[in-house]
Amino acid sequence: MTMAAPPLLLRVLRDPGSALGLRPLEWDLLLRQARRGVLLAKLAVLLRPWLDSVPPGPRHHLHAALLTAQRQSKLTHWEVSRIQAALQPLGVEPILLKGTAYLLAGLPASQGRVFGDVDILVPKARIDDIEAALLANGWNFEQDLDAYDERYYREWMHEIPPLTHEGRGSSLDVHHTILPPSARIQVNTAALFEDVRELPNHPGIHVLAPATMVLHSAAHLFHEGELEKGLRDLFDLDALLRDFGRDPAFWAALVPRARALGLGRPLFHALHYTTRWLQTPVPDDVMRAAAADAPTGRALLDACYDRALMPDHPSCDGALTGSARLALYVRSHWLRMPFGLLVRHLARKTWLRMRPAEEAQP
């Protein structure tokens, strides 16, 4: 299948120096696409060598994005220290996930990487004690849940309901595995906890080992159906693969680790789309090994992901973008739940969406 021309944002992120030739209206479009893709700070980082040559208006927005990312970095370090203090009496040492992990580990993927919450992974056997400790230290659930939603999180999800700190307003997601237990992909959670790394500058704080960190990022992106931040997550994978890939041992371990965790298919998607769109350097033998887990219907998936991974901005949409996003949203639920549970869940969500409109009618 012939790929559509990439949007302006993607072209500039792949070749930052090309931004110097942009006209004023193109700068305006670039910044709008970057904001919608949660990539403005990433764009600012990549344009830093040329920032003095950027027109004053766009330069102001890029500089503000850098300041916002710097502020978030400081706040996140403090937030992690508070989480650690709350869990320390229990003897629980949290494992950081996603953007928080990239930041505290000092990885290149953290540069310009903006995120909305802190994600941690903890043992499920301790989840009740952990929840109680967090509630006692100022965190509370973001919203009141009815009996159905409470059961949904407690029985079928890989995390407890999202938490918000009452004083700081910070958000916290507490995971006990990385995909829902009801999912068609069954993660080897015990193996997940066996390969972690303590951060040298943060005793008692851990992150996933390199191969497992990539696999979690892949599972998160290609198992979810809400892809408004999909391009940002694809750049995460590209940065992780380029960084960790400097060590040949990483590539040798990647596919075997994926199969040990049950994540061979998300890994294939990660390697396929990072090389397809970002020219990520993946060794041929690794790509061939990962392709053994490729799904059928790849052309259809390409047609969907090539559209849905782009920024959620009207200038990036084509005639089929909405259909592609809807298809991947339905696919994500299909992957997440058995058929009977899926039907009940989607029926309930549809009813809840329709109810306010019905109540508004005279």
Summarize the structure.
With 362 residues, the protein is of the alpha/beta class.
Walk me through the structure.
This protein has 362 residues and is an alpha/beta fold. 57% of the residues lie in helices and 8% in strands. It has 16 helices and seven strands. The protein has helices at residues 8-14, 24-36, 40-46, 56-87, 98-104, 127-136, 147-156, 189-194, 210-223, 230-244, 248-261, 264-278, 284-290, 298-308, 321-336, 339-360, and strands spanning 95-97, 118-121, 139-141, 163-165, 171-175, 196-199, 202-208. A seven-stranded mixed β-sheet has the order 3-4-5-2-1-7-6. Helix 9 packs antiparallel against helix 10, helix 9 packs across helix 12 and helix 14 crosses helix 15 (321-336). It is globular and about 55 Å long. Residues 357-362 have low confidence and may be disordered.
